[in-house]
């Protein structure tokens, strides 16, 4: 899962990035409204954390423009305590949730988890495809009764494939949702990761769709 953080306070933005990376998310940070808008409108994200007061384009405008452009990405707005009116306006502009600063990281994480699993999945943190089980909250992965140990990227790749089980995913789509903007990833890299993953979860679950990409069986 890949997340965009748009926040001009470097300390907050970097703390969020570091925390989310520890939770196995791929994270891009934009410190200005312009960069935030450029990334949000051109890249694929699973959620956006959006501060309201930004240099350049403000958060409400970004939010409104994304929705007008038909982007359905979950948006979590960050507001300061004295901007209570903005939070209502934020939700009216198409944001999905808001959080008042200062906040505990755990709270942010809980909101993000709830947003990225909406609307397809329920609040159950466990994803299941055939015998494969992945717990998005404890990071446990099991194949039947057997515990599987995955690296961070293998975990993210597995989660993305499981959330889209039954769909054919191109290598570019996979790269967009599993790696961040700065990562130097070639389609070849995806093949290497899929190969490693198959060694751990078996050869049958991830199907190669020649000329397109991969599909996880339902
Ligand atoms: Ca700000």
UniProtKB/TrEMBL annotation:
Record's keyword annotation contains DNA-binding: yes
Domain OmpR/PhoB-type: 124-218
GO MF term (any one): phosphorelay response regulator activity
DNA-binding region: 124-218
GO biological process: regulation of DNA-templated transcription
Nucleotidyltransferase recorded as keyword: no
Keywords: DNA-binding, Phosphoprotein, Transcription, Transcription regulation, Two-component regulatory system
Modified-residue entries (4-aspartylphosphate), positions: 51
A cellular component annotation (GO) from this entry: protein-DNA complex
Domain of life: Bacteria
Protein name, as recorded: Two component transcriptional regulator, winged helix family
